[in-house]
Design brief:
70 residues, two-stranded antiparallel sheet, alpha+beta, 1 helix
């Protein structure tokens, strides 16, 4: 699983999931990762699949609402 932050890509080692203590988090499946992200305050906004030459990939779009400035 990889993360696309919508910005210039960093080396793969910097694109890993990390817990609040900064430790790398590993997952057994995409659903495992989605459950962990949900627990971190992210919500699944959309899912889509791309098929190219018989290969397919699932993409999960997540969002996290920021608190309103007050």
């Amino acid at each position: 699983m990889s993360i696309d932050y919508g910005q210039q890509q960093k080396p793969l080692s910097e694109n890993l999931f990390r817990d609040p203590a900064g430790q790398t988090v590993e997952f057994n499946s995409a659903v495992d990762a989605l459950n962990w992200l949900n627990a971190q305050g992210w919500e699944l906004a959309s899912t889509f699949f791309l098929v190219d030459d018989g290969d397919s990939a699932a993409y999960y779009v997540l969002r996290r609402r920021l608190p309103k400035a007050g």
